[in-house]
Amino acid sequence: MSDVVTVLEVTGALSAAGGLGYAKTRAPRVFWSLAGLPVARVRFAVTYRSTMDVCGLTVQPSRFRAFMVRNVARRPDVQPVPPKVRRVRGSSTGMKVMLRLPAGLEPGDVAAASERLRHAWGVHSVHVVEVRPGFVELRMTGYDVLRRVRMPRRLPRGLTSGPMVVPVALREDGTVFVRDYQRVPHALTLGANQSGKSMYQRNLIAGLAKLPVGLVGIDCKRGVEQRGYAARLSALAVTPDEASGLLDALVGLMEERFDVLSEYGVADMWSLPARVRPVPLVVLVDEVAELFLTAVKKDEERRDRMVMQMIRLAQMARAVGIYLEVCGQRFGSELGKGATMLRAQLTGRVVHRVNDKQTAEMGLGDIAPDAVVAVTTIPPDRPGVAVAGDSSGGWSRIRTPEMTPAEAVAVCREYAHLTPHIPALEPYRPIVPADPAAVDAMPVVKPVPVTE
Ligand SMILES: Nc1ncnc2c1ncn2[C@@H]1O[C@H](COP(=O)(O)OP(=O)(O)OP(=O)(O)O)[C@@H](O)[C@H]1O
């Protein structure tokens, strides 16, 4: 009988070990929660003081403390003090530790030791974030969270507090990267072919589709990317001619909205009473170079007008709730007059893998110069990885979760009832095919002459 029990015990232990080994590679989130996190917590608690000491993150105690140690605690040796641990929190991707820095240490000191800390505690990465003066958070990840991106089911409170916040990707420290249109109204997404730009746009559109906002598409590649989202688009332009008319209509709409602001004596759409507040609009421009490039001389006039209208929108439309989301492979002065002026207004930047350093500089050089090197090291076998920066100078490595075009189309269809009818944009309203399979076969816009 005892032999049978032993065999059962050994078999159980072996299958548990096998299960954990399998989980480690195939389901790292499960492995981390079951085994990695408990081990890391113990390791952190046991080795904290000595690790901080060898990593140079301790300071000599104050005279008062030294006096108390010698005379009250009656200990002859006065040890250097590490930052005080205020809170330790585990999550499905890692562990967060809040530290109170003693006088003499600054966040940069801890950040400079992050590689040493990561090795000492056996975690995948350690990122240091200053939360308020004197306090830093160590954000540790237990595994490579960007290898296969899974967004958390529930987002932390506070992260999606605004009316225009969309979770789009995961950062390498395990936190969620959101696109917050009130904080950063206009953005530019760059990347080489096959770098993951469309995947980023899909995640963005699927997130926006669920919000009470209007979406406007400009996709001069004949609508190959955006036509599928027709059910959720209030307007779509698929040729430079249509784009030009649509941009004129948007500028007209912006001016009408400014009249409303002026009538109510407010400077921002969000300050209007809810009953008169217009619906926010996000204008998604795919492959921006198609708007700039001209084959023949007579197109130049139209191009110049379009660029001027986009600059006007980028400079002023934020106040009336019109936001630009521009995407392209490159966006530099070679595109022509006005390109760099427009780019300067698009302060949210997401740069995927690019073919040369110059393109990385176009994307991030003016707002977060440190991030340029990070872009040039994105490996080609990791499509979807990008560097996100904004005008605060901060940046982070992000990756979107995988989403097929069919999934994004399905979300747009599910939330089609949220699509606002905007009279000024009605001539550009796309026809929604009844059968999703027939999307490609349908005409894109109603043949109504442009009026504004
Ligand atoms: N976040 C991601 N995770 C995993 N795979 C991704 C991710 N993003 C993109 N990919 C894969 O990389 C390939 C290229 O992606 P995508 O079509 O988004 O690139 P792109 O920059 O839009 O390319 P193009 O400019 O040629 O249209 C696709 O096969 C896609 O499945």
Automatic annotation (TrEMBL):
Annotated FtsK domain residues: 173-361
* Record flagged with keyword Cytoplasm: no
Spell out the SUPFAM superfamilies in the cross-references: P-loop containing nucleoside triphosphate hydrolases
Write the record's keywords in alphabetical order, separated by commas: ATP-binding, Nucleotide-binding
Residues the record lists as binding ATP: 191-198
**Keyword Nucleotide-binding found:** yes
What domain of life does the UniProt record list for this protein's source? Bacteria
Task: Read off the PROSITE patterns from this record.
Answer: FTSK
Q: What is this protein called?
A: FtsK/SpoIIIE domain-containing protein
Q: Which organism is it from?
A: Streptomyces coeruleoprunus
